[in-house]
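As a warm-up, study this chain.
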Amino acid sequence: MTLFIPNTNPRSEFSHFEISPKRQDPESNAQNIREVWTDEENPEFWGVYGRERLKDAPDSECGGPATWIADFETEGLALEFVRQINGSIKDYEIE
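Now compare it with the structure written out below.
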């Protein structure tokens, strides 16, 4: 499941962090661009993205356009990464 975690830094350009289960497109012919799509059922990796802070909708539940930050092998590793840069994320921790 895709998670949207509020950013605790009010000065950041990101209002939220997104953690999404992703799969690479095996049919892609793109050069230097990895084409991926969200795959809730069978992800290959977990992408972490920063969601742009929207000036017109500061209370948005997920923020604006996404900027890729990093990929991780598991959801737990992605959550740990966001926890380290964002502080506590207790509501989202995986058991």
